Amino acid sequence: MKESIGQVPGLAVILVGQQRDSLTYVRNKKIGSEEVGITFLMTMLPDNCTENEVCNALQSYNENPSVHGIILQLPLPQHLDEGKILGLLTLEKDVDGFHPVNIGNLAMLGREPLFIPCTPQGCIELLIRSGIDIKGKKAVVVGRSNIVGLPTSLLLQRHHATVTIIHAYTKNPDRIAREADILITAAGVPNLVCKNWLKPGAIVIDVGTTPVEDPECEHGYRLIGDVCFEEASKVASAITPVPGGVGPMTVAMLLHNTFESAKRAFKFT
Amino acid sequence: MKESIGQVPGLAVILVGQQRDSLTYVRNKKIGSEEVGITFLMTMLPDNCTENEVCNALQSYNENPSVHGIILQLPLPQHLDEGKILGLLTLEKDVDGFHPVNIGNLAMLGREPLFIPCTPQGCIELLIRSGIDIKGKKAVVVGRSNIVGLPTSLLLQRHHATVTIIHAYTKNPDRIAREADILITAAGVPNLVCKNWLKPGAIVIDVGTTPVEDPECEHGYRLIGDVCFEEASKVASAITPVPGGVGPMTVAMLLHNTFESAKRAFKFT
User: Fold this and answer.
1) pLDDT, mean over chain B
2) Percent of chain B with pLDDT over 90
3) Residue-wise pLDDT tens digits, B25-74
4) Most exposed among A141, A251, B158, B178, judged by the fewest C-beta atoms under 10 Å?
5) Active site (annotated) includes residue A96
6) Residues of B involved in catalysis
7) What is the 3-state secondary structure (H, E, C) of chain B?
8) What pLDDT score does A258 carry?
């Protein structure tokens, strides 16, 4: 793109506060962007900033023609209205795919969202590139967050899986999970999923990441997943680790979405 | 409303073609509106009309301040782009709740759609008014259409059921259905669900309506559901008939949405 039209895609991140895992994610997005030649911009705001400050930062990226993707790093501090702020994000720059229009179009058959949320799309790519046919498979998603569980279930459904979502009110979640050909967990509960949750041969994708103190690690903590990896790996036919499983896929999909957005903006084909 | 502010709600329906069940639905909406004092407007277009004609009709209702709810009666003939036309409908008058923004906000936790689709909301009302606690129940939805199956599954999830959607690619649908505490069918396949699909004591809501010729009926045909009613009624603890089950609830919810929309427009509380 740079060679043919002298333009590069731009990605902007707004980070509020200093939550450790958010810092990790943002760092990885920056490294990824620089590796592939995407201009990376960032606005860091303090934990106690006002809604206005976040909206202003967002608005200025909305209007900046060098920015093709904007990420409001979630979760936001409690005092900020996430729904309201996300609603201000220009649909054409919503590379996270969290705008209600994108989620609505993801949910509905025959519609095409402008962007598919990155983590769900990363999970699907892992399945497809591992040669797994999703159509007709029983898929269970653990957790129903707006940023992972919900869009993952909608996307699996688009790929014609038979999908069940497990959440806090689900009775006997282990029994339901044990029916799954494909189990995707995004609960944020360390070691929730042990071997009695798994059908032998199941495919397990672990999106859970909970930071735990560990002075021996580079940043003083490490991330652990939802799955008891060691025992699960003896039952599953395929399984992703934490870290190093879905995380890098999420970043890759984000860079992909940003590139697609820039192509649309520059009418570059 | 008429007594206190001298205004009444208005509902407009756009009907393309003469599909029999659509005619039935529209007739019921007209009767319902007149019963409760909602002004009912209708535009009937021929089966072979152009997209422009539909869009113009829609646009004129969008701009008409006496209209608070607009219904584009679905399905449209194949040559019309349903997604595109629905996208033109003013969000504030989308009393069917099919706009992607409404579906997105229905799907996401912590967001509130302006309108909840009428048939799904009718099903939930039936459950609630029958004293059934949805939270934690296993719910299975048969069919994933944008107008019934999908929004019903999203709404059940909002009420904290554990939801599975069965569709054309689902393997062993009877086995999955047999796990359901609440089974809602909207497949449009007559007699698909027989007693071996049901757990004893299950609650069954039949949204399926397929018209079949019957010269003895008033309009030359009758509607039949997805469920083998007679045998299912011996297994289920509660079951809705077709016709006369969900249909009247759909109309009631539509009138409710239209009234709510008019209240918002007139700032009437």
Assistant:
1) 95
2) 87
3) 899 999 999 999 999 999 999 999 999 999 999 999 999 999 999 999 99
4) B178
5) yes
6) 29, 73, 96
7) CHHHHCCCCEEEEEEECCCHHHHHHHHHHHHHHHHHCCEEEEEEECCCCCHHHHHHHHHHHHHCCCCCEEEECCCCCCCCCHHHHHHHCCHHHCCCCCCHHHHHHHHCCCCCCCCCCHHHHHHHHHHHHCCCCCCCCEEEEECCCCCCHHHHHHHHHHCCCEEEEECCCCCCHHHHHCCCCEEEECCCCCCCECHHHCCCCCEEEECCCEEEECCCCCCCEEEECCECHHHHHHHCCEECCCCCCHHHHHHHHHHHHHHHHHHHHCCCC
8) 98
- List CB contacts (< 8 A) between B83 and chain A: 108, 110-111
Per-residue DSSP letters for A198-238? --TT-EEEE---EEEE-TTSTTSEEEE-SB-HHHHHHH-SE
Q: Helix (H, G, I), strand (E, B), or coil: what is residue A155?
A: helix
Residue B3, pLDDT > 90, answer no
**Domain B118-245 superfamily per CATH:** NAD(P)-binding Rossmann-like Domain (3.40.50.720)
- For A239, the token pair is 């399984």
pLDDT at residue A187, as a whole number: 97
Mean pLDDT over the full length of chain A: 95
H helix or E strand, kind and range, residue A71: strand A69-72
Interface contact flag, B164 A166, Cβ < 8 Å: no
CA–centroid distance for B153 within its chain: 13
Contact between chains at A162 and B146 (C-beta distance less than 8 A): no
Task: Tell me if residue A37 falls in helix, strand or coil.
Answer: coil
Please list the ranges in chain A whose pLDDT falls under 70: none
State how far the alpha carbon of A134 is from the alpha carbons of A76, A124, A129, B97, B169, in Å.
33, 9, 11, 30, 10
Summarize pLDDT for B139-190 with one digit per residue, the tens: 999 999 999 999 999 999 999 999 999 999 999 999 999 999 999 999 999 9
ipTM above 0.90, yes or no: yes
Superfamily for domain range A2-102+249-266:
Leucine Dehydrogenase, chain A, domain 1 (3.40.50.10860)
A73 as an active site residue: the answer is yes
Residue ranges of domains in chain B: 2-102+249-265, 118-245
Q: Does pLDDT of B211 surpass 90? A: no
CATH of domain A118-246: 3.40.50.720
Tokens 């206190």 label which residue? B4
Residue of B nearest to A99 (CA): B104
